Task: inverse folding
């Protein structure tokens, strides 16, 4: 049996996974917990590691190939020259083994430069240190020729000030 990638329809990865599993097809849909700041609050959400794709394990001669494209949520089989592109077992195993060590994505990381967009320190650059509860963060600002740790609302943080969007 060999692993292959399937592209699923937008926002239908879980649906495709469910319908493939109902057909007794071995699937792998890796997800990780992602932390984001939304409306000034930290939120954690489980998201696919490879958005838009999941993996199936099938024999080249399996009769299920004819049903794959018509499975709800599945868009197409990833391939080249009209042939499905196999993925090595070692690659899938490496992804499985590494899932627990994947760093959380999103949010603001310690040491990351941020700009303060509101409050008494509005317009100053700071260095993010840590979260302090759900709605506050600790940042370092240069004030009076010294680095000062200050607690500010998470909503006041404006990402990397040196990044040009």
Result:
């Amino acid at each position: 049996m060999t692993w292959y990638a399937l592209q699923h329809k937008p926002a239908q990865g879980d649906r495709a996974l469910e319908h493939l599993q109902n057909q007794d097809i071995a699937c792998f849909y890796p997800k990780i917990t992602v932390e984001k700041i939304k409306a000034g609050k930290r939120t954690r959400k489980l998201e696919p590691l490879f958005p838009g794709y999941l993996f199936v394990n099938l024999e080249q001669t399996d009769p299920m190939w004819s049903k794959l494209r018509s499975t709800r949520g599945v868009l197409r089989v990833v391939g080249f020259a009209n042939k499905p592109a196999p993925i090595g077992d070692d690659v899938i195993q490496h992804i499985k083994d590494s899932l627990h060590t994947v760093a959380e994505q999103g949010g603001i990381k310690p040491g990351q430069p941020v700009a303060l967009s509101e409050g008494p320190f509005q317009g100053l650059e700071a260095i993010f240190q840590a979260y302090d509860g759900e709605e506050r963060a600790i940042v370092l600002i240069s004030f009076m020729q010294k680095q000062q740790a200050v607690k500010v609302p998470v909503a006041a943080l404006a990402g990397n000030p040196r990044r040009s969007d």
